[in-house]
């Protein structure tokens, strides 16, 4: 079990810094512009919150729909959705048994790690696209590295990860996590 409060708060804070004029900006995430990526975050938060509560239904039984952009009130609504996501996964029962999201059943522990990965990696995507600073705690990265490594062995996985991007062995842990999800840690000219 890992507490997602910081990860969700960090991503919510990034969303508050995105300007309207940036919503059509390119992102490192597949073929999504920043507005579509933000909409995806706004949709995945309640879906994975429902997965934590084992509240199976429309939120957990269908793949996320990608629209053109976020809801009109996204600046107010999405941070609260991220907060609710973190709260749902703070319950130890969320990490036990089986769960579901996107119409896919999985061990709940795996679902929690997928939720954390979505929040952290898409937070990175938002930061890169909007030119914002982004730093992730060591504890989160230590939890994510084996998770994304296990998927990278099978990548590309349609709808999840592209093939890993090769990086030097001595790059920071965040860069390794990002590269294992098929993203270039240097996307957008970012230099550490």
Short description:
With 192 residues, this protein is mainly alpha-helical. It has helices spanning 5-17, 34-53, 58-61, 74-89, 108-130, 138-152, 173-180, and strands at 98-101, 104-107. InterPro entries: CHP03086 (IPR017520), DinB/YfiT-like (IPR034660), Maleyloyr_isom (IPR017517), MDMPI_metal-binding (IPR024344).
Instruction: Tell the overall outline.
Output: globular
Instruction: Please give the CATH class of the domain at 4-136.
Output: Mainly Alpha
What's the multimeric state? single chain
SS element count, helices: 7
CATH architecture of the domain at 4-136: Up-down Bundle
Mean pLDDT: 91
The total of beta strands comes to: 2
Q: How are the strands of the biggest sheet laid out side by side?
A: 1-2
Strand content: under 5%
Full CATH superfamily name of the domain at 4-136? dinb family like domain
- Please provide the ordered H/E string of secondary-structure elements: HHHHEEHHH
CATH topology of the domain at 4-136: Four Helix Bundle (Hemerythrin (Met), subunit A)
Reported for the largest beta sheet, the result is:
2 strands, antiparallel
InterPro entries: CHP03086, DinB/YfiT-like, Maleyloyr_isom, MDMPI_metal-binding
Protein name: Mycothiol-dependent maleylpyruvate isomerase metal-binding domain-containing protein
Domain Mycothiol-dependent maleylpyruvate isomerase metal-binding: 6-127
GO molecular function, one term: metal ion binding
């Amino acid at each position: 079990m890992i507490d997602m409060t910081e990860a969700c708060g960090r991503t919510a804070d990034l969303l508050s810094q995105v300007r309207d004029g940036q919503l059509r900006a390119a992102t490192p995430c597949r073929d999504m512009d920043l507005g579509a990526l933000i909409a995806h975050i706004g949709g995945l938060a309640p879906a994975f919150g429902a997965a934590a509560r084992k509240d199976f239904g429309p939120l957990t039984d269908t793949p996320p729909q990608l629209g053109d952009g976020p809801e009109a009130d996204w600046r107010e609504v999405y941070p609260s959705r991220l907060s609710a996501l973190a709260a749902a996964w703070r319950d130890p029962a969320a990490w036990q048994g089986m769960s579901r999201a996107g119409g896919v059943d999985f061990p709940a522990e795996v679902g929690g790690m997928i939720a954390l990965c979505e929040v952290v990696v898409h937070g990175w995507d938002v930061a890169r696209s909007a030119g914002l600073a982004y730093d992730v705690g060591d504890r989160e990265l230590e939890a994510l590295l084996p998770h994304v490594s296990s998927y990278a062995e099978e990548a590309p996985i349609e709808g999840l990860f592209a093939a890993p991007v090769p990086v030097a062995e001595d790059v920071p842990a965040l860069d390794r996590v990002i590269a294992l999800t098929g993203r270039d840690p240097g996307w957008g000219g970012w230099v550490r």
